[in-house]
Amino acid sequence: MEIRTVGVVGLGNMGLGMAASLRRAGFEVIGHDISEARRQAVEAGGVRFAASLAEVLSAADALVFSLPYAKDVEAVATAPGALLERRDRKVVVIDTSTSDPGTTRRLAARLAEAGHGLLDAPVSGGPSGAATGSLTMMIGGSAEDFASVQPVIAALSAKAVHVGPSGAGNIAKLVNNMLVAAHLITTGEAMRLSEAAGLPAADALQVVNAATGRSAISEVMLPRWVMPATFDSGFSAGLMRKDVRLALELAKEVGIDLPLSAYAEKLWAESRDVISDFDDFTRMADFREVPHG
Ligand code: NAD
Predict the structure, then answer these.
(1) What are the pLDDT digits (tens) for 3-31?
(2) What pLDDT digit, counting tens, does each position of 108-123 carry?
(3) What is the pLDDT of residues 183-227, one digit of tens each?
(4) 17, 16, 19: which is closest to 5 by C-alpha?
(5) Ligand 1 pocket, residue 68 CB under 6 Å
(6) Are strands 5-9 and 28-32 parallel, antiparallel or unpaired?
């Protein structure tokens, strides 16, 4: 079935850019956010801000969610008098939130009973990737649902990988972000060592980025947000704490011990007094400060 109208629920740092990218690709876009303050920013991009969640869930041919937590995803998808009661067409939800595979599978089964689909489709690429339609998406769910929303996915991403059944996208994202959480700490510590030993961090970073210690943290995040101390990547420390916690919960659920990652989670949790949930997550790699431990 053709998709003309896309509903976007959650218009924060990521959802706002996604809504704009969908609009540019020619879709009618209706958005909703519990924060009325998002209305102005959204409407400036030609996206209609719906006063109620039910309006978006009832009018859209496909839905994109960009919400903070799994509980928000569940609350929105199962909102009374909305998606679960719709019978006019099959609606596929593309959930781009970083969520957990257990909630996703449960929710996918519930939506399937009502005739709808759910793809866990977490993203990488930050607010700039969302705004330019160049995200990387890692997708879990049925091949049929994945194929049916191809035009929407193409408008949002430069690369979309169907990694497996329901929950597989969440697993891939948590694996990735567990590495990000640890790399931010280790890369910040490496730069602190360099400075303390007499070599400016900028010089050490140049070498690391041409050698084997490099990562997206050293190649992109340090030069862009940490070295100039702008700390404005658009991803909050609170959401990073959520990701590393979800990764460790998944490890527990599947019965494996990840001592170094567990320690990274502890450092992220303990840094809350210095780096609040609302601060940018790149502060964790600030080698000028000791944000944890
Ligand atoms: P954000 O906090 O900027 O935006 C979330 C938005 O959702 C807010 O505007 C909030 O008001 C709204 N919201 C919360 N509950 C709602 C509800 N029940 N109904 C409608 N709106 C609701 O967060 P973000 O940085 O845009 O991240 C969104 C998701 O994407 C998170 O799961 C995050 O982990 C993930 N993510 C973020 C980034 C990034 O760089 N920011 C990158 C990859 C993935």
Answers:
(1) 999 999 999 999 999 999 999 999 999 99
(2) 999 999 999 999 999 9
(3) 999 999 999 999 999 999 999 999 999 999 999 999 999 999 999
(4) 19
(5) yes
(6) parallel
Residue whose CA lies nearest to ligand 1 atom number 8: 12
Q: How far is the CA of 97 from the centre of ligand 1 (A)?
A: 7
The one-letter amino acid code at 196 reads A
> Does the global pTM surpass 0.90?
yes
50 token code pair: 């719906």
User: Token pair for residue 288?
Assistant: 């000028």
12 lines ligand 1 (CB under 6 A): yes
User: Which atom from ligand 1 is nearest to the alpha carbon of 16?
Assistant: 26
Give the dihedral of Cα atoms 91, 68, 14, 80; nearest 10 deg. Answer: 30
- Decide: 48 in ligand 1 pocket, CB within 6 A: no
Is there an atom of ligand 1 within 6 Å of 235 CB? yes
d(CA 162, CA 200): 43
